[in-house]
Structures are given as structure tokens and as C-alpha cells.
Amino acid sequence: MGTRSRSVKETGFLWVEEGEPHQGVIAEVAPLRPVYRTYSYSVPSSIEDAVSIGRHVEIPMGKRGRETTGFVVGLDKRTWDGTLRPIKSVVNEPCSLSPELVELGRNIAEHYASPLGLTLKAMMPTAVREGRGLRVVRYARLAQSLESIQSDGSRLTTQRKALLDALACQDDAVNVSVLLSAAGVSDAVLRGAIKQGWVEIEERKEFRETQEDPVDRIEPVFELSDEQASAIEHIRARIDSGQFSASLLFGVSGSGKTEVYVRAIRHALAQGKQAILLVPEIALTTQLVRRLAARFESVAVNHSGLTGVQRSRIWQQIEAGEKNVVIGTRSAVFAPCPNLGLICVDEEQEASYKNLQTPRFHVRDVAIMRAQKLGIPVVLGSATPSVEVWYRSEVHRDYDRITLPKRINGLPMPKVHLVDMKLETAELKRQVVLSRAMERLLGRTLDRDEQAIILMNRRGFASRSHCPACGLGVMCPNCQVGMVVHSTSNESICHYCRTRVPTPTHCNDPTCGAKLIRLGSGTQRIEEVLAELFPKARVRRVDSDTMKHRSHYESLVSDFESHEVDVLVGTQMIAKGLDFSNVSFVGVIGADALNLSSDFRAEERLFQLVTQVAGRAGRAGKAGEVVVQTTTPELRSLRCALTHDYESFVQEELKAREAVGFPPYGRLARLVLSHEREALVDSEASALAGRIQSMIASKGLAVDVLGPNACPLRRLQGKYRVDILLRTSHVSVLYKIMNHLSATHALRTKARSLVVDVDPVSLS
Ligand code: ADP
Ligand code: ZN
After folding, report:
1. pTM flag (> 0.90)
2. Which of 64, 190, 473, 541 has the fewest CB atoms within 10 Å of its CB?
3. The domains spanning 8-124 and 226-410 adopt the same CATH topology
4. Which CATH architecture has domain 415-461+521-658?
């Protein structure tokens, strides 16, 4: 299309030129740009075969026709009365999103108010989109029959004859390097034969072979428990029914849920289908994934340590049906299985299932969407189900519930002790990191040569200032507890009453006044205390400072497993997924009402955290003990966690949510504005809230606008943050508002960024 006329004008979403009517294939393309619409392009006949729905293609965009790429989301043969710009090329020749995945992408884009192109982009790994790992492989075949070459009278050298003979005995084209070594001839001989017109070369794009981690297959030897057997029976029947179903697999930790997934997946495989098992994106999934992978014959494991080429290759193997089980974190929910029969989501309540970039989808909810569209079952496993999923199984009852009430082998649940640190401080007349109960039980564990895990429930970037002279730090004027220094704002914040003061440089005790020193993060402090109290114990700290690479986790797991480490100290990241048989003590430090006022899910999280970490104690015949240190023992999350009573907790929690119309009784969308200038972000947020208010009033929609409010994390990466929450009883009302807002450009703002988060999991 070199001779474009000058009279180009944009009408609707077609680029139209004056001219003859044309007939041909039109592709609807969603560009990988933050735009909420699709564009039409003509498909040149030269690439018509390669252009199909789900292909990643190169396209010109905008007035200047800048090169960009997008996904083909529709194809149509029709006549148009101008000239559309053509698609330039197909980017990733052998891979594409299946029509099923494109449809899923449309649903996700609609639900999360995210641009379709960016949504599809998130569904296909970058390496696959760019066709990485592909190389051109040359294939040779005879261009004429051997007889005609010989009758030609040309002299055939021995080498040429060997080459032609090797080709003559093959029906199909032969890989050139295979051919040369089989015939024992050099490339020059081949070049000569090509020149003579005897041999022709064909170039094919193929995936580079990649090394696979060898997985030894291990089959455990035990009888299924009765509960496991009936859970598996239940899911099998669901698979056989050929319909959508969602089942909550509610089983305490150690009840053998993993075995249920494995058997259910095998049943799907036996029907000739594929299965996806999703595991949360946590530091220590390695162990779980390795054990699971060992149970299947052709399994694709998606983890963050893969290279681009490996990712590409795995995608293609799954697409070709060569791998029939996919185990992975977030992105595995989009695995291109051609005949998917089952999706399992382990630890469905995990906050890490929420994608933190556009599209801000929740993996569990996408798994449910996908299962619904395909008419297949989805199994959601948890010891502490999300309040939303529990509500569907208990109140709404459209999900069924399978319960594994007991630990395998009738192991008792660990004994949980709650220590009120306010009392502890009062009795000891000083602040301590470890309570007396924690110190005693930990000491006993170490004496018996058993292992322990200590978890610090405090934000990673926090640390304390400490006075070397009098031993005090910065104290909260209201609560008389040590305040935490936030390095981002250099303020000291009381995590109980949320009082903020600029961090002083000198001790604020008038009789002292020495220069304060900064103690490391919470976990570092615990490490120091442990070294003083138990000098012989081998302590390993696990947090984002010490665990920068996947190999760090792997060596940590193996060191702990082989008992080269006695005590693991860490943040949330060690709470889940670990299964070590020699761990008999777990301590939780700082299980407080942190930010409870800022996030309606805070109690749910605290309950989950304490329950999960307690589930690490005493898993193989050893009675476990758990000490939870808190300044707020009256919280329902802690009261109920003490007796492992999920059902009481969730009932109280549901009542509290119902009273304020928060999920699952209402749906939320959160708009977060941020900018370096505080005054600007505040005024822009008020203006946006005003536009939303008047839009709602004019449409008569039932939506509450909460805010604008300063975010609990007021300043992040140098930008001030303000949010507006939209709350409504029905998700369709939410779509309506979001559509109106984007269609009328009401979301335009001078703030540096505006993030739209539908069904947010964090309000920080
Ligand atoms: P969950 O995922 O519910 O926390 P797991 O599936 O990790 O529990 O099971 C806990 C442990 O019990 C694992 O070591 C597992 O191998 C073992 N296990 C599972 N089922 C049985 C069974 N029927 N008999 C004996 N051991 C079992
Ligand atoms: Zn305070």
C-alpha cells in the first residue's frame, strides 16, 4: 500500500480512504496499548493463511502509522468502501492464543475494566509472543528423481552419490545436519547438488530443544483415608458429568488435600483431557511443586526461574498436547491446553493470586470463569477459605463443599498459646522481643534437637530506632510501645494507634538524649535476640533481603530439610507450603491489630496467617506447639485461631461484612490516584469523585462513593496516594459505571497515574 491517498480521515474505528469498494478479509485487532477499543485492518493475501484469531501481529497505528503490535480478535470476510491499512506481519508464527483464550480474555477485560489488548498480552508469556526460542532449520529433499539425475549424464562423484542415495531413501524432507552426518559428506557437497538443481532446501521454524529438569517419579505408599476417597469420588463424578461445577475442598492443613488433587487430575487424564493445578506465588513453592511433578508422567512446571526459551517451548508443548498436566503460579491459568478437563486451585485464599498490574485479575476467579466457559469442574482447596468462597458454599450454595475434617493419621492439631504482650511488658517492666513462653518452648524444642519456625508479622521495610544508652527507642506517646521507622517517609509510626512523628535523631527520654541507632528490620532484630538467648542454635533469616534469588530458597529448603538449620526466622513468606517433619515449634511475633482500620480483610488475613503457620508445627507424629504474641488478644481472628475454629470465625466475619455491605455482600472497585505533588493529587481526587457522583446521580445507579481518602500507604515511591472506593451490591452496576467513565473520558486526570482495581484484595 505504498500509494496512500492524502485524504485519510478517521471515521469510527476504521481508517477509510476514498476509493473503490474492496472485498476481502478484515481483521479486528486489539493493540497492546492502553486503549479500550479494537481496530480494523485488511489482511494481505500473502499472509492470509497465517492470520487467525489469537495471532500476535504487527500493525500501523495512529495518524503517522507508528508500528505497534496487537492480537487478532475477530476475522470477517466483507466489503468496505475505502481502504483499510493492512496488517504488516505475523510476529510469532507457530503460537497463538486459542479462540477459547481470546474469549476468556474478553471476559477478563470486561470484568476488570482493562484494555483488551493489554489483557491478552498478560495471557501469553512475552517469550512466546515474541517467538523466542525459534530457529530456522533447513530441510533438504530431492528436486527430481534419482533416475533422471543419473540419466542426465552428469558425472556423479562418490560423495554426491552418497548424498543423493541418503535422500532417495526418505519420503519426507530431511534435516540438513542429520543428512550430512548420515551421508558422511560436507556442506560443500550439498551446495554443489543444490546448484545442479538436484536438491532443494526448505526452511522451517522450529523450537530449540531445551533441557528439562529431570523429575524422578515417586509414588507414595499409603491407603487413602475414607474422607480422601469420598472427596475424590465426588470430584470424579463432577468430571464425568461434563458440566461446570465449583467445589470448595475444605481441609485442615495436613488433611491430605494434595493427594485429592493428584487423583482427580489422573481421572481427567484418563478421560484424555488435560488439567491445570495452580499454586500460589510464594517463595517456597519449589518443594510442593517438586513433589507434585513427581506424580505425573508428562508435566509442565511453570515457575519464575524459567528462561524465555524454556517458556516458549513449554507453551508449545502444552498447545500440542504433549504435556497434559500444568503446574504453576498465576500465568498457568492461561495454559493453552487444547482439551482442558479440570482446574485445581490450591490455597485459593492466597492474596498473591491477585495480579498487581493491569489487568488486575484474580487467578482463582479467572479459573472459575474459564471452567464455566468450558463446562468443566474447578476445585478450590483451602484450610482457611476466603470469606467469598465460603459464602458461595454456605449461603449462596452454588459451590459445593467437600470437607476433610481431620489430619492424616489422626494427628492432633498443634496447641496454640496466645501471649498478651501488654501484660508481658507490664509484668517484666521492660519490652521484650520473645515472651517468656516463647523462650521456654523454643528452648525445649532445641534441647530435643527439633526444629522451629519463627514468623514476624510486620511490614518488611519497617525497622526500629534504638537508644544504646538507655535501651529505649522512639516511644509512642499514646501507647508506650516502640514505634516503627518507615524508611520511605522517615517517620516513626505507631502500628497500634497510627500516630506519626518525624523520626528523632536523639533519644526522647529527657534524662538521656543519646544519639539513636537504627536496628535492622524486625527479622534482623529477632535474629539478634536468638543469638543472645540460644548461642548454639543455627538460625537462618528468610526475608526479601536474604532471599533475592530462586536458588536461595532452594538451598534454604534443603538446608532446613537436612537439619543444618535449627530455626528459620522470617516474614510471611515462610508461613505457607512448607512441610518439614521435624518442626515442632512455631512462634508468631507481632500478631497485632496492624492496620485493621485500613482494610476490611485484615482480620481474615490474620486468621489465615496464624492458622497456616500453626499448621507447620507437628506434621509427622510430633505434637506441635505454637506461641502467638500479640497486643490485641481480643481480636476474633486470634480468639478463633486459638481453637482452630474457622467456622466460628467466618460466621462472625460474615456478620461484620454484611453490616457494612463489603464483599461478599457487595462488590468494590478502587481507584487509586498518585502524584509527586500532594495538593494536586488531593484536588484531582476530589474532582474525580465529583464527576463520579454526578454521573451516578444522572443515571440513577445504586452505588456508594467512599472517599476520596488518603491511602494507608500514603506515599509510595515518592508519590502521594489517594483512593476512591466504589461500593455496589451488584457487579453489573460496577461494569456500567466503569464503562460510562471510560466512554466519557471522565477518568482523565492530571494525577501521574490512575489505577482501576476491580475486586481489590488489598486496600493499603
Ligand atoms: P494438605 O495439603 O491438606 O495440608 P498434604 O496433602 O500435604 O496435606 O498431606 C500431608 C501429608 O500427609 C503429606 O506428607 C502426605 O504425603 C501425607 N498423606 C496424604 N494422604 C495420606 C494417606 N492417605 N495416608 C498417609 N499419609 C498421607
Ligand atoms: Zn500508639
Report:
1. no
2. 64
3. no
4. 3-Layer(aba) Sandwich (3.40)
